[in-house]
Amino acid sequence: MNLAEVRTEEVDGGWALVFVRELRHAPERVWAALTEPGQLAAWAPYTADRDLAATGDATLTMIDGEDGQDLAATVSRSEPPTLLEYTWGDSLLRWELAPAGGGTRLTLRQTLAEPEWASKIAAGWHLCLDVAEHLLDGDPVPPIRGMDAMNHGWTELNTAYGERLAD
């Protein structure tokens, strides 16, 4: 199991998970996967009602099986193809993309209500980004969302990230 770099940071009296992963694809391709509704629907834990490359309000629908929950979102920063920042419910997600060896170094910072959630969230993003890599490779697989993650190694990833974050 090849884990991402992870750590937690204190931010504005709260916490953030910092999740860093190398992807094989150029920042422009990764940017499209992060912002275009059709691509997001293929890998992310939510769908978007519009392209996230433009600032302003949006709705992200969290998907768990047949159930969806609409969450208000606001894209506050969009600097293609290097920086995307938006709210997702009570969280702030900041995606930073940098060229790295023919691919992209993706850094996600997500605010957390409690630092204890860091390993759980890292495990979820790990699975989602595995699916995104398949999409970018031209070999799409179904998205892994919600409780379905339990069937794809989420428990083991949660434990492994928990151990890494405890170091």
UniProtKB/TrEMBL annotation:
CDD domains: SRPBCC_CalC_Aha1-like_6 (cd08899). Residues 26-131 form the Activator of Hsp90 ATPase homologue 1/2-like C-terminal domain. Pfam families: AHSA1. Belongs to the AHA1 family. This is Activator of Hsp90 ATPase homologue 1/2-like C-terminal domain-containing protein.
